[in-house]
Amino acid sequence: xxxxxxxxxxxxxxxxxxxxxxxxxxxxxxxxxxxxxxxxxxxxxxxxxxxxxxxxxxxxxxxxxxxxxxxxxxxxxxxxxxxxxxxxxxxxxxxxxxxxxxxxxxxxxxxxxxxxxxxxxxxxxxxxxxxxxxxxxxxxxxxxxxxxxxxxxxxxxxxxxxxxxxxxxxxxxxxxxxxxxxxxxxxxxxxxxxxxxxxxxxxxxxxxxxxxxxxxxxxxxxxxxxxxxxxxxxxxxxxxxxxxxxxxxxxxxxxx
Length: 256
Hints:
With 256 residues, the protein is an alpha/beta fold.
């Protein structure tokens, strides 16, 4: 592992994850820096998304999942049985591969989380909706049609609406599981630009199959292979002089 050069926000120590008899993550240990963009790369089924789901305890929904080890966010072990999982998911927002706006208005999509967290004041909700849509680079496109269904937006706009919804609860960490894989090139470029802007306020962790995307937007890259964390380094170094031959082979397209 290289010297990090960041303030650690997420620390993973000896993480193992199995689904039934299938060992999905094997003794994963590394740190993720505060207000950085970290990309996870690797072939399908190598453990990238499984690790991502550990960060907000989404694997709790899978009956066959068993997890051991430590994941600390700001010093708190989120895998502890004492963890308030609902509070954790407020702190760790998630954006999925396919845009999934709720079947309600643009306004209500963004206001949903804050309402759930007890915000009742209309003026406060108005402020949160506007600031979140601005944060997701969508406000200027939708400010005159907040009452229209979120599902009526284009694919790229829907994904930015989902990002606005995720940041409306002011999380510390934003997880993105292949957030542009269902988008056209122009929408992908908009979301990538947005991700670079978001790291000013959030720690962003993104799973991507797109090598060029990882190189463009991330500060650090983690390469997963068959449940192992093969290499983790600054993106620029990883893509120019990886220390492991398997990383070099994957990045250069020799397999995967």
